[in-house]
UniProtKB/TrEMBL annotation:
Pfam families: Amidase_2 (PF01510), PG_binding_1 (PF01471). The keyword Hydrolase applies. It comes from the Bacteria. Belongs to the N-acetylmuramoyl-L-alanine amidase 2 family. It catalyses: Hydrolyzes the link between N-acetylmuramoyl residues and L-amino acid residues in certain cell-wall glycopeptides. Its EC number is 3.5.1.28. It comes from Streptomyces macrosporus. This is N-acetylmuramoyl-L-alanine amidase. It is an enzyme of class 3 (hydrolase). Residues 238-366 form the N-acetylmuramoyl-L-alanine amidase domain. Keywords: Cell wall biogenesis/degradation, Hydrolase, Signal.
Length: 532
């Protein structure tokens, strides 16, 4: 996809990130998978390394900015709410034109900056470097991640310094904690934890919204919400909502931002956006910021505005990595509070998605939002965190493996009657014997290793409803997961059987010697469930 020439050497990130290499090497399954690729492609790691070198931006900082913006998902060139594009969220709106700036600095056409991930990352690096030059960073300072804080804050595009700090603080939290992101094409990009001590520059005088203790201790009025005490208070632009209400509050509307947390708060402060919501919730830790008072009418759901409270959740509808347990719990606590305060029934008639409000054309919160879990939390009952089953690729798992994919395997084994014990994400002896029992049951080599074939069988297990283009729902998601494992490539998991799924089904049928008709009946299900 990348038009950019590829560097002959390995990027620094791969050299020091043994984890990244291991993750890539482990993706090849046993029999049935594509032949082992001696040099696994790592286009995004390469793009970050090249852009970092070309514009002398610290690689980890560049990745952390991209991760904060998009979780490294370029969304095929589709814009965010604020009209930002690509992994680096290059923006083209009346107030901020980093896309145009990036085009000037790199000579890349805007169309390429929007769609081509390598060009987009280069463009983001160019803008960061231009801001670094403008703030007077010299060559030595450019090598120091801590010196870039004011540059990162400016990259937020926020006119309000507190919001800019919120953005930069989040990036430096990512740098401190480290992270490992899986891109939509199944590539892993890792940033190792590091000690950070950012030089705040002019932002030292701006109170941190990100530190509740500092915010609470501030002598400035209005740092915290008066409607909902756990929330921060960053008011939207007064022209982006209506003072007062024409109707009683009877509903809560659940949204997904299609943009970052700080970016959304900033967008509501922007006089050109003409949108707002009452609350915004951060994906990583569930932090809540209120931007419009409950008693005022935020502009988030057209006909639904007068009678509802709008809650925005940081993320993108098509990428499940944003929907964290912390965000669900925090949002449910807020909704529970709102229901109690305004006498709103805790049911799905009154707590609705944006997509369900009449006269709206948005699809949020989308198929990755777990309503069952959310409503359990809202009602305050016992709720078990959802096990994430949707991944852009399925790694080979074996004794000693840990993490979210191990949890997924354990959950599926238990679900299909093979006792893997507690779903704890640790592949121990109990999990291994459950895998072997499952493999033997399905006629697979009982080696206790979950490779492509075992994943395919595990993910597809269950009923065999006939599915074809136009089908939708949980069974389509199950099919999409199984095809992702079987084909060893990302098949978008959205529960909608469209042309991409049709192509994947036909590819599967062709390579497995089945009738190639794009219809998933008992033959195709049978092959998937046998791990073919
Ligand atoms: Zn919405």
């Amino acid at each position: 996809m990348s038009r950019r020439p590829t560097a002959p050497r390995r990027p620094a990130a791969i050299a020091l990130g043994g984890l990244a290499v291991a993750a890539l090497l482990l993706t090849g399954g046993p029999a049935g998978a594509a032949p082992a690729d001696p040099a696994p492609p790592a286009p995004m790691n390469r793009a970050f390394a090249q852009a970092a070198e070309e514009f002398q931006v610290p690689r980890d900082l560049l990745v952390a900015v991209g991760y904060g913006e998009t979780h490294l998902d370029g969304h095929d060139g589709k814009p965010s709410h604020a009209n930002g594009y690509g992994v680096m969220h290059l923006v083209d709106n009346p107030d901020h034109r980093t896309l145009e700036r990036a085009a000037e600095l790199t000579g890349e056409p805007e169309a390429d900056l929007r769609r081509d991930t390598a060009a987009n990352i280069l463009g983001g690096a160019a803008v960061l470097r231009a801001y670094a030059d403008a703030s007077g960073l010299d060559a030595a300072e450019r090598r120091d991640v801590d010196a870039w804080y004011p540059v990162v804050a400016r990259y937020s595009g926020a006119d309000d310094a507190r919001t800019a700090r919120l953005y930069a603080d989040t990036v430096y939290d990512f740098l401190a904690d480290g992270f490992s992101a899986l891109t939509p094409s199944g590539e892993r990009v890792t940033v190792k934890p590091r000690d950070v001590d950012p030089e705040l520059g002019r932002y030292a005088k701006v109170r941190s919204l990100d530190d509740p203790a500092e915010a609470a201790a501030s002598s400035e009025a209005g740092t915290l919400s008066t409607d909902y005490p756990p929330a921060l208070w960053v008011p939207a632009y007064s022209g982006n909502y209506t003072v007062g209400r024409s109707s009683a509050i009877t509903h809560v509307v659940v949204h997904v931002t299609q943009g970052s947390y700080a970016g959304s708060i900033s967008w509501f402060q922007n006089p050109d956006s003409n949108v707002s919501a009452h609350y915004v919730i951060r994906s990583s830790d569930g932090q809540v910021t209120q931007t419009v008072r409950d008693r005022d009418t935020a502009w988030h759901a057209k006909s639904g505005n007068p009678y509802s409270i709008g809650i925005e959740h940081e993320g993108y509808v098509d990428n499940p990595s944003w929907f964290t347990d912390a965000m669900y719990r925090s949002s449910a606590a807020l909704t529970r509070h709102l229901c109690d305060r305004y006498g709103i029934p805790k049911d799905r008639t009154h707590i609705v998605g944006h997509v369900e409000v009449p006269g709206n054309d948005h699809t949020d919160p989308g198929p990755n939002w777990n309503w069952t879990y959310y409503m359990q939390l809202v009602r305050g009952g016992d709720a078990t965190p959802p096990v994430q089953l949707n991944f852009t690729s399925y790694d080979t798992l074996r004794s000693g493996s840990t993490g979210a994919q191990v949890k997924a395997a354990q959950h599926l084994l238990n679900q299909h009657g093979f006792n893997a014990g507690t779903v704890d994400g640790v592949f121990g002896a109990g999990t291994e014997s459950a895998v072997k029992a499952f493999q033997a049951n399905r006629g697979l080599t009982a080696d206790g290793v979950v490779g492509a074939r075992t994943w395919t069988a595990l993910l597809s297990a269950g009923t065999k409803p006939v599915l074809k283009q136009g089908s939708s729902g949980a069974d389509v998601e199950r099919l999409q997961r199984a095809l992702t494992a079987a084909l060893g490539r990302t098949v978008g998991i959205d529960g909608l059987f469209g042309t991409n799924t049709d192509t994947a089904v036909r590819d599967y049928q062709r390579t497995r010697g089945l009738t190639v008709d794009g219809i998933v009946g008992s033959g195709t299900w049978g092959a998937l469930q046998a791990g073919r």
